[in-house]
Each structure stands twice: as structure tokens, then as C-alpha cells.
Amino acid sequence: MANAVAERAARGLDDELRRELKRYLPRYENARAAVLPALHLVHEKLGYVSPKAIEQIAELLGLSPGEVHDTMSFYQFFHTPADPLGEHRVFVCRSIACSLRGGENLLEYLCRQLGIRPGQTTPDGKVTVEFAECLGACDFAPSMLIDGVLHKDMTKEKIDDLIRSWAVRGSQ
Prior knowledge:
Structural class: alpha+beta
Strand content: 5-15%
Distance between the termini: 25 Å
């Protein structure tokens, strides 16, 4: 495990990702405005943002690594090499509408079935579960966002079906 973390921490931007980031730059008024989109792009491609990637983003934008890291650490959205994203990313909505319709219970149920807590990834690397303060789908509460797709009117049965489809070995 320690070797895998060290390998991920040392992983930086490949040429393709570097070119993609350079194409982003003209869209923004200044370098600081491009930090968050750059972090999102790297996170999407790697499943985490490594210290090496932070240094390379800073270099591309003409900023210090500290400035890029400050932006990254402000948001809980980004994962690190020690805690990479799973194959599937699940956000469970905790808005008032979803909570009133059982969203908190579904978050608890999902985590219990997978044997993890919110913010963690299953040991097999299949699923990362996180909470979202609002998914903007109050009409369909409780809702979840899974791999960018909104799942509406969620139930324990629907969660069980999802877990089966992921072939996750949780604590079921």
C-alpha cells in the first residue's frame, strides 16, 4: 500500500494532460481563475491530485505550488494519492428536502452496506461515497449523483441493485 501511495504521489501530468491544461488557459482572465478548472481536470483524469501535479499546475500557471495547494485544500472535492477516488463516485444529497425524505438514512445504509464511512473508498477501489449539500433535485428526493448521473427517488432497494451492479464486496 505504501508503495502504491508513493507511486501515485510521484505521478504528474503526462504530455496529453499538459496540452489539455494549456488549451484551458485562454478561457480565463488570469492564472488564478484557471486553478480550479485545472485541478478538476487533473482529478478527473488521475482520480486524485498528486503533489507532483500541484507543482506542474503551478508551473504552467506561473503561480507558486502553495497557491495551487491552498485552492485544492479549500475544497473537500479533491482526493489525494493516499485516498484516490474509486471507480464509481457516489454523492448522496443531504439537502433539507432529501433529508426529510430519508437521504441521511440512505447515506448511512449505503455506507454500512459497503463497510465504509462518507468520504472513503471501498477497499477494492470500486466505490467512493461522499455527501453533497444539495444536488438541485429536490423534486426527486432523496437523490444521488453517481458518476455524473442523477439517480432519483432513491430507496434501499435501489441502492442494493446498484451495489450488485458494481460487484462490490462490502459488509453485506
